[in-house]
Prior knowledge:
Radius of gyration: 21 Å
Helix content: over 70%
Order of helices and strands: HHHHHHH
CATH class of the largest domain: Mainly Alpha
CATH superfamily of the largest domain: DnaA protein, C-terminal DNA-binding domain
CATH topology of the largest domain: Chromosomal Replication Initiator Protein Dnaa, Chain: A
Largest sheet: none
Shape: elongated
Distance between the termini: 35 Å
Amino acid sequence: xxxxxxxxxxxxxxxxxxxxxxxxxxxxxxxxxSVLSLSELNEEIAKIVRKKMQSERLGDVDNLxxxxxxxxxxxxxxxxxxxxxxxxxQAKITMYAIMNTTLGMSRRSIAKIFEVFPNSVNVGxxxxxxxxxxxxxxxKSFLVKYQRCLAKFLEKIKQPV
Length: 161
């Protein structure tokens, strides 16, 4: 592990320029392969990519919390409580649906964020999937709020930081 840490700083110091200097990238790969096996290097690269993707996803989740809490007039801590029928529950279902469909998050990772069992997320997503706006006015008003949240969220994540 000490060897990896020493070479990690060397590799990190050889950052390619914005124009995409492929030579520096290939040198970094070569340096990595001199210390690690191909599978170990691949695993290290995968860890870095997963970590980066997770941090970006968490930023998107924070933006989603802001949009949904604003639209449904609920607080963020309220979304962590177990309400089964209320505007809080609708806000939570909206979060589940957008996180699953738009952000591509698994039901298990959504459950970890809300500190619930994955089956609770399944129930919420299935509830959303089974809405019938033609038959039930409440479902129609809920879908309108969902669509507003989705539009605001997509607008928010497209804005440059």
